[in-house]
Please model this.
Amino acid sequence: MSDTNNNAAEHDNPTVTESGQSLAWNCHPANRRPWVTAGVTGFILVCAMLVYIVMDSKAFATLALVILFASLAKFYFPTRYRLDDAGITVRTSTQTLHKEWSIYRSMYPDRNGVLLSPFAEPSRLENFRGLYLMFANNGDEVVEFIKPRLGTKPATPAAKPAEESEA
Model:
C-alpha cells in the first residue's frame, strides 16, 4: 500500500489530516512537554526507590514502578483519534474504542481537548460516561468537525409553554 509512508509520518508527530468527511490526528503529551515528562519520570523512580527503602523488597518496588507507569500510559504513549461520519475511533496502546455519534448530545471544549457528553444538559456523570478527545494544536478543526454530528434533538416548542402555564 502507498499509505505506509503517510502512516509512519503520522505516528512520529501529531499531525492533522482532513480528507473528505474524516479528521485524524495523534496526541502524544510526553513528546509535547519534555520537561514535564522528565519530572514525572523522576517522580515515579523516586517513589519506587522509597518503596524499596521502606519495604526492603525489590518485588514491591518493581510493582510500584509498573503500577505508576501503567497509570500514566495515556501520557507516555500516543493516542490516535479518527473522526468520520460513522463515529469516533480512539486507539491507545492497549485498546481501540469506537463510538457512534448518536451517543453524544453535547460537548464542552477547553484548552486541551473537548469532552463529548451523552447528556443534553450538564450532569455530574459526564466525566464517567463521556469521552474526552485531546487536541494536538487542532482545537478549532476538531470542534467544527464535531458540531454538526452531535445527536442533539431539539425540544418540542409546545411542551415548554404547557409546563409554564401550569405553574
Q: What stands out?
A: The domain at 4-28+77-149 is CATH 2.30.29 (PH-domain like).
